[in-house]
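Quick review question:
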């Protein structure tokens, strides 16, 4: 959701509350949940049902959105709260990795753990629905909200989205993802995308989340092929509810409803925050919906279906049993009861571990990990230091200064604290190492001065973006350009000119240009992304080799901005002309060399791939596994570490797909000198294409190629099979 800027940050402490752990994560099946929901809704009057499906108005409730409560039969006001990286507008919560950086772990287990700790925090705060994860595709790298999602590839988005959903739901909270493209499409524009691309790229992650049992999906602000998303029958009813068999609820993004009757008939189930214009107190639904039913414009069955979907999702998550009282006061932070959600600091530990697991080592001439006998380290750049405005002192993190640990907008949470890179490096290096620093990005003489006689100079820079209701340095959500901010290119050049052991660290929301990349003094480039509150600790873990890096790029870093297939489009009609060729698929199809490929990331160890074996099973049962590939990965280096073998599929030519598509990855930890066997299973869906005419997925037939490697451009083993 989006909101205008918000007022002061609350500092008050009220009574602390001890809360029990969620009672169970044995969620009901949809059938069980529907049986209870139908019985409940059968007792509701039309007005009760309308209250259940209509928000109570902007800034009028405890949470960023609340539905109306029903007394008899009792059904509570549901609390809906942002966002995809943690509980927004709340104190004492964890502000962890952004989606894009979580994706860079390429680690299912960690993605699940992140969903799970976030779910627990929403639960303990009494939020029924978490407005995340965001699984929209990073179509153009400058798109302001790309960092909230999991990158440029639908398969990766699908895995990350469904692991997050499972994690959140296992804590009895209902995750909600935005269908379709809200995180990326300009606020008021039309995303014009052909049906095959819609299914194969943009719907794919939602399909995987529906399989994971997701209970809610949001319709977005933009139009889809000329129809407002929240009244688009095709995406809401046909695709989501019929084709994917989604049984949960569709609700609006904040203020994205544009009509009362058409939206109801097209499959919308809940309006948020309820108003026509946010804060005006009027509604397309509420009393209007009752009237539409009484006038015969909307069948009462449709309203019954809306209420049933909402109450079923609530039963499915087990929220009818002892759900904590809502302690969020989104618009009156001072009055919020203090509820500590990470008393034993377990969540902070996950954030630190994940931050280290997500850091992508882009290049390394052997300078990393840093040696133990360094005497002097120079740290250069404002991105290494604190946020000068103070923590959480900019509206929704739109500071554009200090170290960057998340983007800006509604997808943010308040930092409980923020370990800066300087803090993290200093505490790990200890007192015996002399650490000199400057946070001045513009004083190149000073940067040169402090760098020139240091054993290592670590130079920091960043690039931020966010949601378009806030502007930072002329960036109205989207980035104006793909260059580094704050004089970054000149600063890096100056430090590299001064010190032959230069390490570059970049915190960025997405790809940046790197004109200095071939500078001979730049011995390593580290990409920690947006690591959240433990930023400096995670970075130090990797720089000093306490953790062997294993992060992988969830997006392509191009040599030139023009190399990307899609750019920010100021027109109302945004044509998805690249079709299936999103991200690396475009680079492959047009033989464009990226600077750093999708899936790239180095280790302090060295991994060899061998013995690719492929089996095709033509007679698999419906929906089953049609082919498996097994590869042996051995750690030939002198350190234990994790590798991320990736499996890409080349379809038969007749299928009309880009050269290769990610269809499997696994993060495997392998001790030095040991090896591991990794198996990829390719399901019917993995090997199918969508046929717009029949509206069906069909398994492609012919010769497939399996490419297994360490990135989309570092293929180590190749094999074929035929279906
Ligand atoms: C909870 O948050 C409040 C407001 O930011 C802060 O003053 C307090 O110290 C926090 N409590 C704990 C235990 O961190
Ligand atoms: C009903 O909807 C109309 C727009 O069709 C709006 O002008 C009116 O204010 C709404 N009524 C209420 C009570 O919200
Ligand atoms: C927040 O920023 C304002 C000015 O922008 C400053 O005066 C104030 O001291 C800051 N507050 C904190 C807590 O850092
Ligand atoms: C790109 O935008 C950033 C952030 O606004 C700005 O610092 C930088 O100077 C811009 N770069 C160019 C080449 O205009």
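Suggested answer, residue by residue:
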């Amino acid at each position: 959701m989006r909101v205008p800027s918000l007022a002061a940050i609350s500092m008050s402490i009220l009574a602390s509350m001890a809360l029990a752990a969620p009672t169970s994560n044995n969620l009901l099946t949809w059938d069980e949940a529907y049986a209870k929901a139908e019985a409940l809704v059968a007792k509701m009057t039309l007005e009760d049902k309308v209250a259940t499906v209509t928000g109570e108005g902007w800034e009028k409730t405890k949470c960023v959105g609340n539905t109306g409560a029903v007394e008899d039969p009792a059904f509570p006001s549901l609390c809906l709260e942002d966002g995809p990286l943690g509980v927004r507008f709340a104190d004492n919560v964890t502000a962890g990795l952004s989606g894009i950086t979580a994706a860079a772990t390429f680690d299912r287990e960690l993605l699940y753990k992140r969903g799970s700790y976030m779910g627990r925090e929403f639960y303990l705060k009494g939020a029924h629905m978490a407005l995340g994860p965001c699984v929209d595709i990073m179509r153009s790298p400058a798109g302001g909200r790309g960092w909230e999602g999991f990158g440029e590839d639908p398969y990766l988005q699908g895995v990350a989205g469904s692991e997050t959903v499972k994690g959140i739901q296992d804590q009895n909270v209902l995750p909600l993802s935005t269908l379709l493209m809200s995180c990326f499409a300009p606020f008021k524009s039309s995303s014009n995308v052909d049906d095959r691309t819609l299914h194969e790229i943009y719907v794919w992650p939602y399909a995987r989340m529906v399989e994971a049992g997701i209970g809610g999906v949001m319709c977005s602000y933009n139009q889809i092929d000329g129809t407002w998303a929240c009244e688009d029958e095709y995406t809401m009813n046909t695709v989501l509810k019929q084709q994917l068999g989604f049984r949960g609820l569709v609700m609006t993004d904040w203020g994205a409803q544009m009509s009362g009757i058409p939206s109801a008939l097209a499959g919308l189930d809940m309006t948020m925050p309820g108003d026509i214009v946010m804060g005006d107190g009027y509604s397309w639904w509420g009393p209007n919906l009752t009237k539409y039913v009484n006038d015969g414009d909307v069948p009462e069955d449709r309203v019954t279906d809306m209420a049933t979907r909402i109450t079923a999702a609530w039963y499915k998550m087990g929220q009818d049993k002892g759900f904590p009282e809502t302690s969020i006061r989104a618009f009156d932070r001072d009055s919020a009861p203090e509820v500590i959600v990470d008393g034993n600091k377990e969540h902070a530990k996950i954030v630190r571990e994940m931050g280290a697991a997500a850091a992508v080592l882009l290049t390394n001439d052997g300078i990393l990990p840093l040696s133990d006998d360094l005497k002097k380290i120079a740290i250069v750049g404002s991105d290494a230091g604190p946020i000068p405005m103070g923590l959480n002192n900019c509206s929704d993190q739109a500071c554009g200064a200090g170290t960057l640990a998340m983007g800006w907008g509604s997808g943010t949470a308040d930092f409980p604290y923020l370990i800066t890179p300087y803090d993290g490096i200093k505490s790990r290096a200890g007192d015996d190492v002399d650490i000199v620093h400057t946070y001045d990005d513009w004083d190149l003489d000073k940067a040169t001065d402090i760098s020139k006689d240091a054993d290592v100079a670590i130079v920091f820079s960043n690039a931020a973006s966010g949601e378009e209701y806030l502007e930072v340095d002329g960036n109205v959500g989207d980035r104006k350009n793909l260059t580094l901010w704050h004089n970054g290119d000149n600063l890096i050049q100056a430090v590299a000119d001064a010190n032959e052991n230069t390490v570059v660290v970049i915190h960025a929301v997405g790809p940046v240009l790197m004109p200095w990349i071939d500078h001979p003094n730049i011995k390593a480039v580290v990409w920690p992304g947006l690591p959240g509150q433990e930023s400096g600790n995670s970075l130090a873990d990797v720089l000093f080799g306490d953790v062997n890096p294993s992060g992988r790029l969830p997006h392509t870093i191009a040599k030139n901005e023009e190399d990307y297939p899609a750019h920010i489009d100021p027109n109302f009609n945004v044509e998805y002309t690249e079709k299936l060729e999103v991200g690396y698929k475009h680079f492959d199809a047009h033989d464009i060399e990226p600077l750093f490929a999708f899936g790239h990331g180095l280790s302090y160890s060295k991994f060899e791939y061998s013995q690719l074996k492929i089996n095709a099973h033509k007679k698999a049962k419906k929906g089953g596994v049609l082919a498996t590939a097994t590869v042996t990965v051995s750690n030939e280096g002198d350190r234990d570490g994790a590798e991320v073998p990736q499996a890409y599929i080349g379809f038969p030519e007749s299928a009309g797909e880009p050269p290769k598509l990610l269809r499997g990855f696994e993060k495997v930890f392998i001790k030095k000198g040991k090896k591991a066997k990794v198996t990829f299973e390719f399901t019917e869906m993995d090997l199918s294409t969508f046929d717009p005419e029949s509206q069906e997925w069909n398994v492609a037939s012919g010769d497939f190629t399996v490419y297994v490697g360490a990135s989309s451009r570092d293929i180590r083993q190749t094999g074929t099979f035929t279906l």
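Why it works: The longest strand covers residues 625-635. The radius of gyration is 25 Å.
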